[in-house]
Amino acid sequence: MRKLNKNERRLSLLLLIALFVIANFYGLSALLDWRSSLAQSVAELQSQRNSNEIWLRQRDLWLERKKWIDKKQPRIAANQVPQSELQDSLTKSATAAGLQIQEQSFGEVKTTPNYQSVSVRLKLTGSLQNVVKWLVEIQQPELFQAVTNFSLKSADTPPTINLELEVARWYAPNA
Questions:
Q1: Which of 23, 99, 141, 164 is in the most buried spot, having the most CB atoms within 10 Å?
Q2: Tens digit of pLDDT for each residue in 119-136?
């Protein structure tokens, strides 16, 4: 093997310097990306810690609420038909509130590990005042029911309105 001349040594040195600079550039880029991902992970962990601390401070409140739900939430008995019962109670209360029922049908039944829900769809007609009072009456926390879908339209006569809604009731899951 022959010795490198002056120009070849200079070019070899420039090549080594260029390779060193490129390697450092890619290495630095990888380190900065790694640092950025670590900083993001730290920020996520701090956010999660803050959220957990809030939940821990409110632990007693949520435990009381859980006790209340466990005590008050209705359960479906073996011979019970919850959709029919919900429909009956809604139609009776709507009639008592002075609303006229145009249509009624059953909605979707959902079963999850935390609850079971049934729903009823109604189309009603009545005065705005009666509708508002009835809506307040049927959405009490103790009833475990709420309006999940709602459409309000003015009828041909101004004080009268047409209401389409879906009301759901939540039951405790089967044990």
A1: 99
A2: 999 999 999 899 999 999
